[in-house]
Specification:
This protein is of the alpha/beta class. The chain has two domains: 15-156 and 216-256, Vaccinia Virus protein VP39 (Rossmann fold, 3-Layer(aba) Sandwich); 162-211, N-terminal domain of TfIIb, CATH 2.20.25. It is built from eight helices and eleven strands. It has helices spanning 15-18, 21-30, 33-47, 64-71, 83-96, 131-144, 159-162, 217-226; strands spanning 54-57, 75-80, 101-104, 116-121, 145-155, 171-175, 178-187, 192-201, 204-213, 229-235, 250-256. The strands form two sheets. The protein has a seven-stranded mixed beta sheet with strand order 3-2-1-4-5-11-10, sandwiched between helices. A four-stranded antiparallel beta sheet has the order 6-7-8-9. The longest helix has 15 residues, at 33-47. It is globular.
Length: 259
């Protein structure tokens, strides 16, 4: 019997319940300090951020980029919907002695946090929302970044990255005593990836499903343009390599229009 599932059977707000302690701890361990530093180097260099810039990190997850940016002298606000992740980020900030404002909130509702010199959306969270939600998120970013301010968007589910040679091969990943087994399907009607995860840590078991909506590189550019951004540039990683067909990651940079 086929195990095929459709995204129609998965809640569009799956992310509201997905990011509990076991998945969050897995990704906290998987993301190395070297990855974080490379991302922050890219943000500072490509956006030309002076010391003390006000930066919005959304969604911020457990705060690794927020804390790294704060350590370099920036004033950072991190926003995330996961209460577990925000609680962890606040504890980490206290331990590090960093005055980061970690706020629980939805990525589409950013008005109460003010206006920033730059915004970053790093990690794998861009694409969690459907098209209407993604439009709302990019519009919120447009309102949150001052005219002339910068933006970095990290996206691993660009069509040009995902679709060439897609096979959905099962994967097993381990970080210490946490193991996650992953299977992925592509829903052609909805243009999204359906990823099913089975986490285990000792006797603990957790099954969870995630959706990543797939957009073309051009469509992403249109979404940012509609939100008031210009000078959109595409890179395949924090080393500044140009983005090409088949590259596994897309880093977009942009500027908020000034007029």
């Amino acid at each position: 019997m086929s195990s095929h599932i459709s995204s129609d059977h998965i809640s569009s707000s799956w992310y509201a319940d997905f990011f509990t302690d076991l998945p969050n701890e897995f990704w906290r361990r998987a993301a190395t300090p070297e990855w974080t530093e490379a991302d922050v180097d890219f943000v500072e260099a490509r956006l030309g951020l002076p010391h003390g810039s006000r930066i919005l990190d959304v969604p911020c997850g457990s705060g690794r980029h927020s804390l790294a940016l704060a350590a370099r002298g920036h004033r950072v606000t991190g926003v995330d919907l996961s209460t577990e992740a925000i609680a962890h980020a606040r504890r980490a900030a206290r331990v590090a002695g960093q005055a980061v404002a970690f706020e629980h909130g939805d990525m589409r509702d950013l008005g109460r946090f003010g206006v920033f010199d730059a915004a970053v959306c790093l990690g794998n969270s861009f694409g969690y929302l459907d098209l209407a939600g993604t439009r709302a998120f990019t519009a919120a970013l447009g309102r949150a970044v001052r005219p002339g301010g910068g933006l970095v968007v990290d996206f691993g589910a660009t069509a040009e990255s995902i679709l060439p040679g897609f096979a959905g091969t099962p994967r097993t990943m381990r970080t210490g005593d946490i193991t996650v087994e992953t299977t992925t399907e592509y829903d052609v009607a909805a243009s999204c990836l359906i990823s099913r995860y089975r986490f285990s840590q000792g006797a603990r078991r957790l099954a969870a499903t995630a959706l990543h909506h797939v957009y073309t590189s051009a469509h992403l550019g249109d979404l940012l343009t509609d939100a008031g951004f210009t000078d959109i540039r595409r890179y395949a990683g924090p080393d500044g390599t140009p983005y090409t067909l088949g590259a596994g990651r897309l880093l977009l940079t942009a500027r908020r229009e000034t007029g």
